[in-house]
Design goal:
about 120 residues; mainly beta; seven-stranded mixed beta sheet; four-stranded antiparallel beta sheet; about 65% strand; elongated
């Protein structure tokens, strides 16, 4: 199967920075698009940023200019550099990936989620 493992979350003061990482491992032919989502307490999960395999990126308006998504295809890893953090950025951050897999002669794709990493920004 496929596993996504996030790291890098923690407690930081407002204005500070954190860098999240997510490693995709397992039965992988290739990792296609990757993304970060966040979910604050009592709220729905929301998209933070996406990145294609070729590096095209897109961001939620709330994080534009503060967060940067990047990836290392050789390591099947996606990063989220977060700067100028605000208390409202406090949430559990989830990694998401579209993964192409191969079984015998057949190729197929599935979407996978990580377990989440907590980011807390104090005021």
């Amino acid at each position: 199967q496929v596993q996504l493992v996030e790291s890098g979350g923690g407690l930081v003061e407002a204005g500070g920075s954190l860098r999240l990482a997510c490693v995709v491992s397992g039965n992988i032919f290739s990792v296609r698009s990757m993304a970060w989502y966040y979910q604050a307490p009592g709220k729905q999960r929301e998209l933070v940023a996406t990145i294609s395999r070729t590096g095209d990126t897109d961001y939620a308006d709330s994080v534009k200019g503060r967060f940067t998504i990047s990836r290392d295809n050789a390591k099947n890893t996606v990063y989220l550099q977060m700067t100028s953090l605000k208390p409202e950025d406090t949430a559990v951050y989830y990694c998401n990936a579209d993964v192409s897999q191969k079984s015998g002669l057949y190729y197929y794709s599935n979407n996978y989620w990580g377990q989440g990493t907590q980011v807390t920004v104090s005021s």
